[in-house]
Amino acid sequence: MAKMWAGRTAGNTDQIADDFNSSIHFDSRLYREDITGSMAHASMLKKQNIIPAAAADHIIAGLSEILADLESGELEIDETCEDIHMFVEQVLTERIGEEGKMLHTARSRNDQVALDMRMYMRKKVNEIITLVRGLTEVLADSAEKYKDVILPGYTHLQRAQPVYFGHHLLAYAMMLIRDTSRLQDALKRMDESPIGACALAGTTYDTDRVYEAELLGFSGVCANSLDAVSDRDFCLETLSALSILMMHLSRFSEEIILWSSWEFRFVELSDAYTTGSSIMPQKKNSDMAELVRGKTGRVYGDLMGLLTVMKGIPLAYNKDMQEDKEPVFDAIDTVIMCLKVFTPMIATMNVHPENMMKAAQGGFINATDLADYMVTKGLPFRSAYKISGQIVAECIKTGQVLETLPLETYKKYWDQFEEDLYEAIDLKNAADRRNSLGGTSRESIAKQIELIREKLK
User: Fold this and answer.
1) Which residues, 6+ apart, have CB-to-CB distance to 226 below 8 Å?
2) Cα–Cα distance between 166 and 226 in angstroms, integer?
3) Is 41 a catalytic residue?
4) Rounded to an integer, what distance in angstroms lies between the CA atom of residue 348 and that of residue 270?
């Protein structure tokens, strides 16, 4: 079949070359944006008297019918067409005749595809922001629910100091708030319309790019026609933000996987978000969390792939840029899928406070508080540090924890210990004393939850 761009050449390419060149099998998902953008373009051409008003009206009506038929399934996308733009224009011309050929006046596929991508990504990024907000709300609610549950805080994957589980969850909520902010920033910079830049240099027609941009809900237009068609930094910025978001989900997944193991038993995931083994009947695998962790590498790959595509391309448009769509589509699909499974997985997660407390006590994470107790009684910190270490060694040797070690044993190491030491080393008291701004105390947790909910507004 001769191509719509036939002229300089016969347009009769080899079938293998056709298949290699074609993008419709993946850019067909842009049909809504392509048709909506074309309707706005026809309206602008009519307003500026570039094409007859009656022709513009016929084009808009025809496009509206094509969109309705695609949505209903009455019309199927013909994957023998080169791309979604050619498909829409071909069907339009078949339906309304020669007037359909007027639609492409004062535009190119170069600015058309840039417009489609910005419109599509604007919609999908808003969808992702909504999903991230939903997960953040779940974390804030869970932090409220578990604000009294002590968890051993870790450094180097070694038990370090007592924190409340709610405080730990809020750390991820804070990360998600920043993820939302990054995505909102990306939205601001993609909110400029490239349509009217044409192939690279603009057009001789008396177009109104601002009017067309306003019809499509853009806040402005790209100020340089070369830049409008040749850069994909809005794609890269979004992929970067999505990669950071996936990194946060992956770290959280790693902790969930550890916490779900028999070695920890801090949490148990709902059966709805776990799987079993084909041969080991006792297994309950946290496969959804593992898949989120695994798919993070996939999103990273999408970012690195597009960065590599773009790094050596001279201005303006080059066919290499057709490779922008698949990584963008893949990353967006992957992130949406991960968020849709991750949020209910966390919301339905069952927590075992008794196991967390047992681990906290067994880790002697109140040893610093024991040292601080002696410091308040006048002992230099380094001396208190050494005595605390000796007492921990005693507990390990005798199978006890700091809370159960008798006072007479304490006095063997320092004769000024009194009964009030047990209040000082109580894990909840120890956590509540960490009431500095952003600390783990329950008072601080309440302020953090309030902050998160305020930001979500």
Assistant:
1) 197, 200, 201, 315, 316
2) 51
3) no
4) 6
Q: How confident is the model at residue 6 (pLDDT cuts 50, 70, 90)?
A: low
The string of DSSP letters for 402-457 reads: TTTS-HHHHHHH-TT--TTHHHHH-HHHHHHT--STT-SSHHHHHHHHHHHHHHH-
Q: Is the pLDDT of residue 85 over 70?
A: yes
Decide: helix, strand or coil at residue 72: helix
| Exposure on the CB side of residue 87, measured as CA atoms within 13 A | 25
The reported pLDDT for the residue numbered 5 is 46
- Over residues 296-319, the pLDDT tens digits come to 999 999 999 999 999 999 999 999
Structure tokens at 219: 């806040």
Active-site position among 72, 156, 278, 436: 156
Given the residues 64, 181, 261, 277, the one annotated as active site: 277
Task: Find tokens 């939850």 and name the residue.
Answer: 449
Measured CA to CA, the distance from residue 378 to residue 358 in angstroms comes to 31
Distance CA 227, CA 232 (A): 9
CB 79 within 8 A of CB 48: no
Cα 267 to its chain centre, rounded Å, is 24
At a CB cut-off of 8 Å and minimum separation 6, what does 46 contact? 52, 53, 56, 57
**Sequence-ordered list of residues with C-beta below 8 angstroms from that of 327, at least 6 positions apart, any chain:** 239, 301, 302, 303, 305, 306
Q: Tell me, yes or no, if the pTM score tops 0.85.
A: yes
Examine the residue annotation and report whether 85 is marked as an active-site residue of this protein. no
- Judge whether 365 and 372 are in contact, CB under 8 Å: no
Please state, for a pLDDT cut of 70, what percent of the chain lies above it.
Answer: 97
Which contacts (CB < 8 Å, 24+ apart) does range 49-58 have? 50/105, 50/106, 50/205, 50/206, 50/207, 51/102, 51/105, 55/99, 55/102, 56/102, 58/96, 58/99
In angstroms, rounded to a whole number, what is the distance separating the alpha carbons of residues 244 and 256? 19
Query: For residues 117 and 235, is the Cβ–Cβ distance under 8 A?
Result: yes
Locate 81 and state its tokens: 């067409």
